[in-house]
Design goal:
about 190 residues, mainly alpha, Arc Repressor Mutant, subunit A, Tetracycline Repressor, domain 2, elongated
Amino acid sequence: MAKLSVGPEDPRVARTRRDVIRASAASLLEDGWEATTHAEVARRAGYSKATIYAHWPTPVDLMRDAIAQICDDATHPPTSGNLHEDLHDSLTALALTLSEGRYDRLMASVIERAGHDEGARDLRDRLYQTATTGVRGILGAHLQPGDVEPCLAMLVGAVLVRATYEGEAVTPAFITDIIDRALDRTTLRGS
């Protein structure tokens, strides 16, 4: 039996996928899950709904690629090696992202669906991993392994609650305070 050779992706298909994924990600961040329909994405991207459905048959398929794009576009502040400064910079960046109001709406939509949709649970996990990568890396470089996850939960949870649930500004003083409190119960590597 002859083996079919698979060549590089057709540039037109690659361009269509890129345009649709970017339009999906923009719609998701600006207007939320409910508004990010095949019709809305087709309108934004300039393609037919049939084209969108051909590549992304379900809303979760569309959201998976949109969220992958959002995660791929995420950046984290560079680290200096100073635990307190690096945590402060990373938590400040997270607070800024949350204060823009787009990421928390996205998380809320995904969390709402995660209770009954395994695909949405995967998306929730991907978003959480992306949002916490910087802080997790900093903690992992300085803390004993058993202290990383509890400290991460305390720090990220405090910023999340302050920015989204309380609707308060996440000030530098607040970040310094939560870092000091979280690190008070941890063991640094080599200690």
